[in-house]
Amino acid sequence: MIRSRLHRAATAASGHRCKQHRHYTKTLVASSTTHQKTKPSFFDQVDEQMNQDYPHQYESYLESKRAYQNRKEMMLQNEEARVRRLNNDDDVAPVMADTKLFQENTSSDVIERSSRSRHQVEQIEEPWYKQIEQQEGASTQSRAEEATSTAAETPKREESNISLNLDNNHNNNTTGKKSSIFSSISKSALSFQDGDKSTTIPLAELFPSLYAKESSSDSATSSSHTDTTDAINPEMMYDARHFDAYREAMTAVMSNEKMQRTLSKFEKRDEANVELIQKLKEWVLSDHRIIDEEVVGDRWSKLEKHWREEWTVGGASSLMEGSNGGNDPVSNVMKAELKAQNELFQSKLLHADEGDDQEGKKDPQTFNQIAQLLFTALGRYCAERARSVPMEVAWYKVKESGLVLPKDTISTYLYVVGTMGMGDSFRMTTGDEEKKNNNSEASISEEVVTYHDLAMKPTESSISLRVKAFASKGDAKTANELLEAFKKRIGDDVDNKEAIRLRTYLPILKQYCESKDVGAALAVFKQMQSISTVILEPENYVLLLASIAENGFFCTSSPPIEGALDLGLNHESGPELFDELVSEMADDVLEISSASASRLHNALAIGFKERPENNLKEMHPLASMPISRQPAESNEVVACRISLDRSSGICPVTQAQQRLIVLEPSQRRQLHDDLLTLSREQFSKFAGKRDGESPDRATEELSKFSDWLNERDGEPFTAILDGANIGYYMQSFDKGRFNYHQIKFMVDTLEERGENVLVVIPHKYGYNSFYTSKSHHQQLDAEERTIMNDLLRRKKLYKVPPRCLDDFYWMLASVSDQVSARKEVDLSVANDDSSGRWPGVRPVLISNDQMRDHKWELLEPRLFRRWYGCHIVNYNFTAFVMGECVDGNEIFFSQADFFSREIQGNQSGSGKAWHFPVSDWDLEERFAVR
């Protein structure tokens, strides 16, 4: 239906009267002719009809039409300027739409050039119109006659057409065709401004049915135009969608005010630059190539071959050593090839129709300089807007012209193709499928990498793309050799900006796993573990485990993995190897995703498929894994979803009990030291810097607090209170009042349970009056002052120094050794404590703070989670109103974790059972494997 309606509108607008639409067209034409003063124009009626029929696409239609008109106007102005220059007459009248008036003001030679140029513009702009002609099966001659008769009947429609198609009339006299506004807007793009950014949505995505056969009709369409001397070869044209995106981006770059001023300076510098810049603009916005693809491809193949020869002869190490930023023989070869290509290109573009006397007027260096500016700006445009499609055409034009790009531009191009996955998607409208599918052909990303590495030194970004290309072709061995050579060149400096990242190694690991080369995959994984800058994710461990499992190496009595012992492993295969690898995983990651759990389940089902102890069945990767509650047999393979008993931590399937994994003494010291470092880094950020104030002030104050905890005598603190959190608990109703009565209520309750408390508060709350916010001032009453002074007298209240964060103080207090007070006594409470204290480590931290502040992300994740699970105790009670509370008010505590929420293995009577927390399952649920 959409196609039929758009076809009808296009036919009416272009002047073609198809039989099935004759009545529709006559009605609109009669209306516009009879009521030209009071009624809207013909095209206004077409717009109205479009609005009625397709309200959802109407705004897109108008945007596309305006974009078309702007482009037509720019092309017309460019043509007028070119005609004046060719005719050497600055006073010549502007090019007229009417062919007769145009002929009176220009020479025959200029008319021929203009006609040819306009016809090429017609071909570029109107492939959809030509497609409609072919679908209707009408000949050029019959359409010309029909258009002529229609024009005689509807002169007003002809007048409207001139306003929207300024250059159609002179073409009608030679071809008899009337082009439609829809033929151009159907290929344009819709631009929506977002600040200084824009996003392009091709109309083809909105009206896909109109473009279904476009690529097949392009070659037939181009052959129908035989009246021009320079017929466009369809094989010399770019992919339509790619070119639309490129043209929209390049037009935006050229219309930029700064770029316009730069081009104007060049034009004023030399009169010859005016024509040179015009030719450059025409080539930049042209959708056909100047140099045949094979010529450009052959020259680029030489560069790629030269790079590979250096690799073959000297190996990766020599290639790395020979790259010295563009001064070695390798880059000199590139410069020579680019120079030859540039000379060939300029001879065809600038001097094809000129005599020898004019060749010297055009400066090739000026042309290259301006082209560099345009393509540099285009690279920035694509990088800022995360758009890679325009680069499909831009990169070929760079190669075609033989441009020597600046180093920062090359890096920008490398970033665009590297982060946006353009790959091998570049293609022409038509071409040899065998050539397109030839694996020896380099993708655009590989070509940009070659350009980058021959012009400069290889970097982590370029090596990453090169490794990805090798791995995608199944050559993981060469990819690994290249990566190892690069690793030797950069050394072990972790602060090196070129340090190897996970993204560089991962394609090699994936390729080895996919090719079932388990030994090589294991070796690469061990290399990854040894590099500090390679941060492994849970999915990377699951990838390796699943690959080994699928190949049956975790089964009892399975054959050994070749080279496993040489990698430092203690086992070559079997369940023991699984335990060893998962133990390493548990030291590095905390949990997995449900997708990883499903992946590991299916891998074990495949690997144990022929084993008698197996009862696993593959499940759909997207299916939700059901919870298992039935106890497993002693020799049964387990890989299922379970829910732990919260009070005991026992798994219902494996009967293994989960442990509470507490911080070891070395981990407590590490967390203590990390807090001191973090306090220094965060001091200036949160408190700001004052004149004469040391940046180490926060660290010095926190160290004093730590020393006080270690040196004080008396009973060790077993409960640390987040005073601000408790004082403000549920106090939003009273303008955010800080309530000392709630703090006393908490202290009394904990002391009744046998805990020795320390309240930590920000400094300002230790005064009789303070601001709770910028606009609200609070004055403590006599009873509140008594509570505060009593806590200070008993040395149970610590006021954090001004401008220091109290968070660091109560957290450090929870991990302090309290050397003098503790006297090396374990403060932990057993499960069967007779006094009713909840079991677990001491001291605990009483707070409802969810610890979601970004500053905690700077701490080591495992230490932070282990600390949080062991030490944090949440609370709940009915809030106080001043000093009043409800009768029978009671505090309910949510004790610290009884078992740790991290990957752990525990004996189950039939071997070790592993339980993996899953990020998108409930807190008590685990993925169990045995």
UniProtKB/TrEMBL annotation:
Residues 107-175, 214-233 are annotated as: Disordered. This is Mitochondrial ribonuclease P catalytic subunit. Residues 138-153, 161-175, 217-231 have a biased composition (Low complexity). It comes from Skeletonema marinoi. Residues 110-122 have a biased composition (Basic and acidic residues). GO terms for biological process: tRNA 5'-leader removal. It holds the Pfam family PPR_long. Its EC number is 3.1.26.5.
